[in-house]
Amino acid sequence: IDSFVRTESVDVLRSTTVFDGATDEELTAYAELLNDDPILLALFTDVIKRSPELNRPAVAQDVLGIWSNSVLKELSDKTHVPVAEYQTSLASLAKAMLVRRMLYPHESQLATWFASSPTALRNVRQMAEAGHVCYLNSAPRETRLQFRHDRLLEYFVTSAISQILLSGDYISSPIWDPYFAIFLGRALATLHVEPAILNAVQSMSPVA
Hints:
By secondary structure, this protein is mainly α. Helix 3 packs across helix 5 and helix 9 packs across helix 10.
């Protein structure tokens, strides 16, 4: 999906009643933080509708994380599984996608991935059933797990790469696969990394 021009982003926000009373300067600032991205603008609006008391600039700076936590809280209220447990399971899922080099796993593969963690498997299935963060996409001959938006896939995979880099155990990691170069680049953009990591990136994945 192509980005809006700035005036379109402001018009989209202005058309929503939750932003009644906001100035053009405020709406422009939100649009800039959200990179005029239609998906991010929609998620930002959804978060503010759900929780109008939140600090709006802070939400715009981390809209994917805050939106995800918001819908996980709703799921948690129904299942009584702590939000933190769902977050941990999502992190494990994203790391497994990296290790297995598979961003859209078959439903049957999830049981193998989480063979030693039935609780994580249960959590992933519950989140997929809820359908907000991820879902099971049924095709004629296969059912695959997908994140609801590519922005969410990017967010969780990038977060997993960041954790691998910060752990120091990255030399033999799958993060150097050219397939993940865009995610690696985004992770590096959000981290203050040591020279050793930058040297490794230049050597093993210069396109990042």
